[in-house]
Specification:
This protein has 265 residues and is of the alpha/beta class. It has helices at residues 2-9, 25-35, 59-64, 83-93, 110-121, 134-146, 161-169, 213-220, 228-244, 250-263, and strands at residues 39-41, 56-57, 69-73, 76-80, 102-106, 126-130, 153-156, 172-175, 201-204, 224-226. The protein folds into two domains: 2-81 and 235-263, 3-Layer(aba) Sandwich (Rossmann fold), CATH 3.40.50.10860; 84-226, Rossmann fold (3-Layer(aba) Sandwich), CATH 3.40.50. Helices cover 41% and strands 15% of the residues.
Length: 265
């Protein structure tokens, strides 16, 4: 995705992938400085742990509690998080405005944290987090309050009456769980979508497969669906903004990412 964008922009740059063991994370961060890399992306399992080794963490990333983008400014490493922005931009791209909508978030992990914060910032009317661990979902709601993001947030357990009531009013449902991800493609976080309003949008952060069982069921009901490829591409394009001062070429990045996914076994 990034290398295709570099080629399209005529940039002398290269994007590489490095596997870093957790115990080697401090040395890896030191290597960014030593090698003079202009920036990096960080993925699981390092998004939270890497914050301790950076010189500065942007306020939004601090609120999310995770960094996925690092910028090297003369040896000073600054951490950002573009996941939430990528999510919101991918909705805007499809003409979906989240302000004033009631939202149901499935899951309470790292992706859910970034998305919940940005949904609150965007002015949703209400946010219900459905998660198997009620304590983890409640912790996320408390984090939103500590981040001074005023939103009517609630917690529900899967299959509960509270969950059913929230889904019946939800105009946006976002799956932040791994249920439905390859190779377990027949799993789904929601078996029944009949209670959703006719104008609800169903968003799955998974992009392998491009159409999960959840999205297929929603599409068959006539609902607007969005897969995780959109968020992947836009969070990457937002990383460019921190690295180079301009947004990455979205169409080029999308085409490259889609080609890679279609070629993957």
């Amino acid at each position: 995705m990034h290398n295709a964008a570099f080629a399209a922009q005529g940039m002398h740059a290269l994007y590489g992938v490095f596997d870093v063991a957790p115990e080697q994370l401090p040395q890896a961060v030191a290597g960014i400085r030593a090698l003079g890399l202009c920036g990096v992306n960080v993925t699981i399992p390092h998004k939270e742990a890497v914050m301790a080794y950076l010189d500065e963490v942007a306020p939004t990333a601090r609120q999310v509690g995770a960094v996925n983008t690092i910028v090297n400014r003369g040896g000073r490493l600054i951490g950002y998080n573009t996941d939430g922005w990528g999510f919101l931009i991918s909705l805007e791209e499809r003409g979906v405005r989240v302000a004033g909508r009631k939202v149901v978030l499935l899951g309470a992990g790292g992706a859910a944290r970034a998305i919940a914060l940005h949904l609150a910032m965007a002015g949703v009317a209400g946010l219900t987090i459905i998660n198997r661990s009620r304590a983890r979902a409640e912790f996320l709601v408390a984090d939103l309050a500590r981040a001074n993001q005023p939103v009517a947030a609630a917690v529900a357990e899967p299959g509960s009456e509270e969950a059913a009531a929230a889904l019946a009013e939800a105009r946006l449902v976002v799956n932040c769980t791994p249920l439905g991800m390859a190779p377990d493609v027949e799993q789904t976080p929601l078996d029944d979508l009949s209670m959703l309003p006719a104008d609800a949008v169903v968003y799955d952060t998974i992009y392998r497969p491009l159409e999960t069982r959840l999205l297929r069921t929603a599409r068959q009901r006539g609902l607007l669906t969005i897969n995780g490829l959109a968020m992947l591409v836009h969070q990457g394009a937002c990383s460019w903004e921190y690295w180079f001062g301009r947004r990455g070429p979205v169409d080029v990045m999308r085409a490259a990412a889609l080609a890679a996914l279609e070629e993957a076994p």
